[in-house]
């Protein structure tokens, strides 16, 4: 047999060996989703606090919070830019400054040269900057309130969602905990992305209100974390 022929035969064997490997990972992924569903529908404690189900629960809060925080940081930068440029345009026109933003307790720090950056970023001048200020203010409010919602859902402040917390969180969002077509993390991040895309702060507040009815509250640790993110 020629070297080329031997090489071709070797590739054929590798392709055959790869098929069981692919099937293995598909089966593992399906098993993970089934375990998550079991942890959501069974009473708390049935599965115990260790093992794969607990590891999955732990990952949901961490990854969900990280997803939202990443958006918060982007929104802070965008809001800071809009706020800085709007102030710069107002000063240039000697107009009366607009009232402060409502719902956001945060003072942006100017990190750009307005004289060079703002005319280029907002060719429409003050009106363009004002529109972007309102838009970025709303988006920052949605992302921050969503993060507060995620923190409130962690009832015991242990940076994980246990089975009971996940079940209550899904109930507050009218989500089906038995849906195994997607992971809980994917479902939650998609819901946040939907809120953010349509700037729907009302749904975020409604979900948080339902958690409050179940005894959840914003704790001192939650407030400290929100303050840290806003710095």
Q: How would you summarize this macromolecular structure in one to three sentences?
A:
It is built from eight helices and no strands. With 231 residues, it is mostly helical.
Helix and strand arrangement:
Elements: H1 3-41, H2 52-93, H3 114-121, H4 126-153, H5 163-172, H6 184-198, H7 201-213, H8 220-230
Helix pairs in contact: 1-2, 2-3, 2-4, 2-6, 4-7, 5-7
Give the H and E element order: HHHHHHHH
The helix content is over 70%
> Total strand count, please?
0
**Low-pLDDT regions:** 1-8, 10-18, 20-55
Q: What's the alpha carbon Rg, rounded to whole Å?
A: 24 Å
Main sheet makeup: none
Task: Calculate the mean pLDDT score and round it.
Answer: 79
Oligomer description: single chain
What's the overall geometry?
A: elongated
The helix/strand class is mainly alpha
What fraction of residues sit in β-strands? under 5%
Number of helices: 8
**CA-CA gap between termini:** 69 Å
Walk me through the structure.
Mean pLDDT is 79; it is low at 1-8, 10-18 and 20-55. Helix 2 packs parallel to helix 6. The chain is mainly alpha-helical. It has 8 helices and no strands.
């Amino acid at each position: 047999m020629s070297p080329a022929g031997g090489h071709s035969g070797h590739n054929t064997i590798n392709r055959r060996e790869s098929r069981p490997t692919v099937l293995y990972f598909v089966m593992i992924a399906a098993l993970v989703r089934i375990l998550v569903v079991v942890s959501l529908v069974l009473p708390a404690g049935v599965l115990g606090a260790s093992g794969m189900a607990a590891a999955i629960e732990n990952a949901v809060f961490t990854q969900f919070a990280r997803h939202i925080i990443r958006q918060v940081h982007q929104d802070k930068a965008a809001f800071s830019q809009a706020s800085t440029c709007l102030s710069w345009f107002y000063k240039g026109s000697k107009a009366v400054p607009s009232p402060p933003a409502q719902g956001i307790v945060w003072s942006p720090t100017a990190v750009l040269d307005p004289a060079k950056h703002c005319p280029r970023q907002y060719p429409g001048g003050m009106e363009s900057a004002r529109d972007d200020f309102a838009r970025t203010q709303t988006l920052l409010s949605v992302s921050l309130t969503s993060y507060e919602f995620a923190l409130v859902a962690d009832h015991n402040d242990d940076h994980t969602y246990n089975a009971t917390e996940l079940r209550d969180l899904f109930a507050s969002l009218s989500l089906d905990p038995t849906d195994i077509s997607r992971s809980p993390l994917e479902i939650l991040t998609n819901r946040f992305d939907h809120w953010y895309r349509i700037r729907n702060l009302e749904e975020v507040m409604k979900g948080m209100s339902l958690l409050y009815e179940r005894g959840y509250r914003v704790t001192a640790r939650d407030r400290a974390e929100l303050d840290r993110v806003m710095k």
